[in-house]
Design brief:
This protein is an alpha/beta fold. The chain contains 13 helices and 8 strands. It has a 6-stranded parallel sheet, with helices on both faces. Strands 1-2 form a two-stranded antiparallel sheet. Helix 2 packs across helix 3, helix 3 crosses helix 8 and helix 4 packs parallel to helix 13. It binds uridine-5'-diphosphate (UDP). Uridine-5'-diphosphate binds next to helix 9. Uridine-5'-diphosphate (UDP) binds next to helix 9.
């Protein structure tokens, strides 16, 4: 199956490689695309807030970032092929940008995080052009839109957290002629070296979410959504 519906949201059933091939083709053709990296939190938010649901459903691609979506897809009997973590997707897109001399725009995160990320990208990806950047606290959303319009970058990474990042992309992206727009959550924090990703063993055991909670206890409240999410998926399965 190409798309799998979990609680009214269609999730694209891609492997990371298949998704990258699609996006690379879109960039080659100068197309405009909007991608959501979804997790249970996003699915639950979309089921509560109609405006947010419209933004997510308006995306060209919705891919499974969290392990919760993989589990949900198994519960409903249509397993998704694999998890595509936002931070890995961003890394792969930067590799693609390096290979093809692409330009990027970075929007989001704290000013010092963004500054570090710009340095890391300049040092690691010498062929990538940073068309512009704006942090997610002092930057003005209107000014960001203006800069993107003026520079027409190939890739726009938006790291404002959900629902802000998806809403900003949804409300603005039709004003731009081209570009792949991706909401990447906390990826700037990780790729700048500010926050460490879970060690490999935690990731292999699908426990990255638990590692993040233990490292940032403020995330605990957000994870309380998980049981409600799983119960809702189970109920939807029983209704099938
Ligand atoms: N953020 C931002 N502006 C805001 C709120 C958040 O730029 O008004 C940034 C925050 O600094 C972090 C990212 O958005 O870099 C979201 O991180 P989080 O870990 O919450 O995202 P998740 O991956 O869990 O969606």
């Amino acid at each position: 199956m190409k798309r799998i519906e979990i609680l009214n949201i269609d999730i694209d059933n891609f492997t990371k490689t298949e998704l990258l091939n699609e996006l690379s083709e879109s960039i080659r053709r100068d197309q405009r695309k909007f991608l959501v990296t979804a997790n249970p939190e996003i699915i639950m938010m979309a089921n509560k807030d109609l405006n947010f649901a419209r933004a997510v459903q308006g995306a060209d691609y919705v891919v499974a970032d969290g392990i919760g979506l993989i589990i949900g897809s198994k519960i409903i009997g249509h397993p998704l092929k694999e998890r595509i973590p936002g931070v890995e997707l961003m890394q792969e897109l930067l590799n693609l940008a390096e290979k093809n001399n692409l330009s990027i725009y970075l929007y989001g995160a704290k000013p010092e995080v963004l500054k570090k990320l710009r340095t890391v990208i300049r040092e690691t990806y010498s062929k990538v052009t940073i068309a512009g950047s704006s942090d997610g606290y002092t930057g003005s959303p209107e000014e960001v839109a203006k800069q993107i319009k003026a520079t027409a970058p190939d890739l726009v990474f938006v790291a404002l957290g959900a629902p802000k990042q998806e809403s900003w992309i949804y409300n603005n992206y039709t004003d731009f002629s081209k570009g792949v727009f991706v909401g990447v959550g906390g990826s700037f924090d990780v790729l700048s070296g500010t926050v460490k990703r879970a060690p490999k063993i935690w990731r292999t055991l699908n426990l990255e979410w638990l590692y993040r909670i233990l490292k940032q206890p403020s995330r605990w409240r957000r994870s309380m959504l998980l049981p409600a999410y799983l119960a809702a998926v189970l109920r939807s399965r029983l209704r099938q």
